[in-house]
Design a protein that fits this description.
Blueprint (H helix, E strand, L loop, with lengths): L4 H19 L9 E3 L5 E3 H17 L4 E4 L3 E3 L5 E9 L1 H5 L6 E8 L2 E9 L4 E6 L3 E4 L2 E2 L12 E4 L3 H5 L3 H10 L2 E3 L3 H9 L5 E4 L4 H4 L2 H7 L3 E3 L12 E4 L4 H9 L2
Parallel strand pairs: 3-5, 11-12, 11-13
Antiparallel strand pairs: 1-2, 3-4, 5-6, 6-7, 7-8, 8-9, 9-10, 13-15, 14-15
Helix pairs in contact: 1-2
Length: 257
């Protein structure tokens, strides 16, 4: 029997809190740093947090699938699959910047139905499930009403990725047309949109463990999470979070490239 969306959400909140808090044993303290083949950093804090979460899932839901950034896939053909990113924003983590997060997305028959974004160093937990709304530390949160790019705050993670993945022109246009832009984004930027503290967050490159939590969170906060062609998906390798009013104009900018 497949648990309800509410049950999956409640479990994901517990797992993200436990895994995320384990990272605080190393944040601004001692950690072991390595670099993967793609030159992305990984620490023992990443691996320990994913181990904590995997063990809790296995205990509560034997047979459920798990896909994690650090330890790969198990039972991925299950009707319920947990998607884990123990530290999203490892570059922030290793620099002592508190805008890193622990991400958990839950797929039921390949559809994202629950998502958690937890920033352990700030103790901010955003939680959502399909049909259940979105909360920040238990209080309802919504995307901000913003009807013009000229009034919008635009976030991203690394500016050079836009050029690397062929989006230099639309990125430049967004910079020129929005009121304010900031970086140190990663999933925390999407959390900022979901909680009404920013209006646009764009990642030109996303893995499934980066994206799985975002779609339910932004959708249930009243916003839109799509790829850069406007498709509501976590599978195409990039992502945009915003409100429904700004979405068409942003997509039009990327369509012109």
């Amino acid at each position: 029997m497949i648990p309800s969306n509410a049950e999956l959400r409640e479990a994901a909140e517990r797992y993200a809190a436990a895994g995320g808090r384990s990272t605080l044993n190393h944040f601004k303290k001692t950690f072991q740093l390595e670099y993967k083949e793609d030159d992305s950093p990984v620490t023992n804090a990443d691996r320990e947090a994913e181990t904590v979460i995997r063990e809790m899932i296995r205990s509560d839901f034997p047979g459920h699938g798990i896909i994690g950034e650090e330890y790969g896939k198990e039972n991925e053909d299950s009707d319920v699959v947990w998607i884990l990113d123990p530290i999203d924003g490892t570059k922030s983590f290793i620099h002592g910047v508190p805008f890193y997060t622990t991400l958990i997305g839950v797929l039921v028959k390949d559809e994202p139905v629950a998502g958690i974004i937890y920033a352990p160093a700030l103790d901010e937990l955003v939680s959502a499930a399909t049909g259940e709304g979105c909360t920040l530390n238990g209080e309802e949160c919504r995307v901000r009403e913003c009807d013009s790019l000229a009034k919008a705050t635009f976030l991203t993670t690394e500016v050079d990725t836009f050029e690397k993945y062929g989006f230099r022109a639309p990125f430049s246009e967004l910079l020129n047309r929005t009121r304010l832009h900031r970086t140190w984004g990663d999933a925390y930027g999407h959390m900022m949109v979901a909680t009404g503290r920013a209006d646009i967050m764009i990642d030109p490159i996303l893995n499934i463990w980066d994206a799985a939590a975002l779609l339910p969170v932004i959708t249930e906060a009243g916003g839109a999470h799509t790829d850069l062609k406007g498709k509501k998906t976590i599978q195409t390798g990039n992502g945009l979070s915003t409100n429904k009013t700004l979405l068409p104009e942003i997509l039009n900018i990327f369509d012109q490239d």
